[in-house]
Specification:
single chain; two-stranded antiparallel ribbon
């Protein structure tokens, strides 16, 4: 019991440190980007979008280096499910109604659905090859190039910053590395102590924890009446998770896809993504649809552990 409590405490502290360090890293990167005269739009679709998936990415790389690559697919699939079912569900319930604009419906949703099908195709043989990882990385680059080409050509004046921004970027980067390392170590130990697969813990507790930034950012956007930003944040995070978090760790080592993720969590994610796309046809997501998404998340968590 003592070892269990110690590892739970290490997990909670290291995950919190990972999320805070990622926030500081993105904040410093944004300031540096503005100081170089990079338009806010480009910063948004690159630095900020990448930053929301930074905890998943670094923790997944650490998992591969520690020889427990099952955590990677659990992290990606669990985070994608949490983003749609939990984050979007809360946004719809709190905001009463979420409007979906034409660009999201005609461009972002098809890209999201395509990424979900591509992920299923890549892992169906329960491994991710170097070539498949390369394909996912190319898909990410195509997505970024397309997003950047939708820039409105805004001009941005360079903003003066101090050396503190560069120092924050460096310190935050180091903090991310070590906090991710201890997060994964505690997950591996907890899986042994509780006799639960590390992939299950990754798909549930870790995925939930790393999705908390999306919860706060999206709810803040709803309070400001920026529903498009809330939906765009969820879409961008899922696309980055699928393309970046699944591809980059595969260059570090071989990724193993466990049976329960392949036969339950992955089909659940695909079905949920399609449900999300169908909901968007009406160009709005109602409160009752948000409640349904939250019920889906509860169902997923219960089934995952049973």
């Amino acid at each position: 019991m003592e070892q269990l409590l110690i590892n739970l405490a290490i997990f909670a502290v290291s995950l919190f440190a990972l999320l805070k360090a990622s926030d500081f890293f993105v904040e410093a990167a944004e300031k540096i980007g503005l100081s170089l005269g990079i338009p806010p739009f480009i910063i948004g679709v690159t630095i900020v979008a990448f930053g929301t998936s930074l905890p998943e990415l670094i923790s997944s790389i650490e998992a591969v280096l520690m020889g427990d690559s099952k955590i990677v697919i659990g992290n990606v699939v669990g985070s994608n499910i949490a983003n749609i079912a939990l984050v979007l569900g809360l946004v719809a319930v709190v905001g009463k109604q979420v409007k979906v604009n034409e660009h999201i419906m005609n461009v972002d949703i098809p890209i999201l659905v395509t990424s979900a099908f591509l992920l299923c195709f890549v892992v169906y043989d329960q491994r991710v090859t170097f070539f498949e990882a390369f394909i996912l990385l190319v898909a990410l680059i195509i997505f970024l190039v397309y997003s950047l080409n939708n820039d409105d050509g805004e001009e941005t004046e360079k903003v003066a910053i101090s050396w503190k921004s560069y120092a924050m970027l460096l310190v935050a980067g180091i903090a991310i590395k070590f906090s991710a390392e201890y997060t994964i170590k505690s997950v591996i130990e907890l899986s042994k102590l509780l006799n639960i697969g590390s992939d299950v813990i990754a798909a549930s507790v870790v995925a939930l924890g790393t999705s908390l930034p999306e919860v706060f950012v999206s709810l803040a956007a709803i309070r400001k009446g920026k529903t498009d930003m809330a939906v765009g944040n969820i879409l961008g995070s899922n696309i980055f998770n699928t393309y970046a978090v699944m591809s980059i760790p595969a260059f570090v080592g071989t990724l193993v896809i466990p049976d329960n993720i392949l036969h339950f969590a992955l089909p659940f994610m695909l079905a949920l993504t399609i449900v999300f796309a169908v909901m968007c046809i009406s160009k709005k997501i109602s409160r009752w649809e948000g409640m349904m998404l939250l019920l889906f998340y509860v169902l997923f968590m219960v089934q995952l552990f049973t």
